[in-house]
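Hello support,

Our group uses your service weekly, and this is the first time we've seen a run hang past the timeout. The protein is NmrA family NAD(P)-binding protein. I'm not sure whether the cause is the sequence or the server load. Input pasted verbatim:
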Amino acid sequence: MKIMVTGASGGYGHYAINYLQNFAPAGTEIYGLVRSQEKANKLSASGVIPRIADYGDLESLVAAFEGIDRLLFVSVPNTALQQNIVSAIEQSEINYVAYTSLYGLDHEKFGLEQNHRATEEMIRQLGIRHTFLRNNWYLEIAAPQLKAAVKTGKLDYLSENGKVAWTLKREYAEVGARVILSDQEGEVVNLAGKPVTYLELAQALAKATGKRITSKVVSPQELMNSLSASGLSPMDTQLSYLYQDYARKGNNGEAQADPTEFEKVLGHSLTPLPEAVKKVINE
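Update from on-call engineer: The timeout came from a worker crash unrelated to the input. Re-ran successfully.
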């Protein structure tokens, strides 16, 4: 069996390939799709068979997919590029696709839900077996604010009730590896952690570091000022604020998230929040 992971040099792809190398039965050939010879050389050194293609070049994708049986399709935030990948799948012998979609597609998710809904429908139209891995947010997204909070000793937040069901990127990738190998899941696998407030996130950070982390509800302007003063870059300041505002507004499916299905597919419990936070701030 020949399994390919797209985006093989990215964080999710890297983790997924490592899990495949650990889990795959003897005789499984693991391929990684990358965009440059330099990245291909790194894959080869790790025992993975590289294929080079550009998502904007359909012919290169068709050539890269030749002989592949199963595809772990790691999404990108561009519907036109994903259309190329689906078109290349259609011209290949790939018989099973696991696609990294987005949890809570019925809710507004910074506009990302539109790309994923469109891509899911394109994959359905292929008429081949598929699974949509509806991943929620990576805890790594909160890393800049968490690291800043370690330095400043505070993690302020906009709402006592706003929640986000974070989980480590590597755990989403482990599910991806297990699903593409087993081919036994249904069309949709909902993947989200236990919903937590920003206060609970601050408490987990305190436990992870052994440091005192203060927290309080602040106004939007106070939060922006606090984030900027903490040493975050303008981009990280804006992203940290956007996710806090997302949690504050609610109506996003986060509070209803249930990790049961996630842990069932994993075959083990998710990493406890303090331990997960410790991993993130040490990376």
